[in-house]
Task: structure prediction
Amino acid sequence: MMGKNSSIEWTNHTFNPWWGCSKVSEACKFCYAETWSKRVGQQLWGDSTERRFFGEAHWADPFLWDSEASKLRSRRRVFCASMSDVFEGRDELNPWRERLWDVIENTKSLDWLLLSKRPENIATMIPWKSKLPRNVWLGATIENQQVADQRLPELIRHKAPIRFISCEPLLGPINLTPWLKKKGSIHWVIVGGESGPYARPMNPLWIQNIREQCQKFDVLFYFKQWGCWRPPDNGSFHSRNEIYLPDALGKKSIKLLKVGKKKAGRDFEGKIWNDIPVMN
Result:
């Protein structure tokens, strides 16, 4: 769940300043990071649970990636953090955050993607009070309309070179128009479904609607994955587990099959949607 050449489709590397977090909204219900940590014997989730920290070799990795990127004259994206939240409000994390800011400032060939479910904490935790460094991208996880209305005003307050939204897991329809219509407020939107044994299905109409909003306002759109559930696509997929979701008229006519994340893939309407911002 971390390191060079990440399996997460929209990044090159992942870096975790620590492991562990606490749940704050519906997107967290079946947290993949919590599941993974338990699988390797780590109990790290909850308000009172200790976090896991790392040594010098771990913290040296970003400098190696930066050196490689510099030699290749090609920027690399680093997702920070896949197993935690950089902006979790715990005082014992402050020294590790300070160390992270220093690493970011000294790895100029890396673009750091700081994705959070707590954008309300950004202003008091980042050291850059006016304009963020050009290699810092700020993002917020948005799973439904209620969360969008809460988190996006906090995200767009900050003058980051790239502001992005991750609608994963997408758990309901979302109208992003109030934030997308102002040019430069949001640069990139990622959409993805939920994976794991208890994955909740994602209605294709929700994806379609967000993609159309992005196209209307010239915002980059990236479809990451279906998760465990997807449409049968003219009989191409088969499963005993099926569900019917409402269409535009409210009739439960949209069939989804539970086929697993790998088999479900990441095509939508016959296309792979791979738009990613490019920094020069």
Observations:
- Helices lie at 32-39, 56-72, 94-105, 122-125, 145-155, 177-180, 204-216, 261-264.
- The chain has eight helices and twelve strands.
- Residues 56-72 form the longest helix (17 residues).
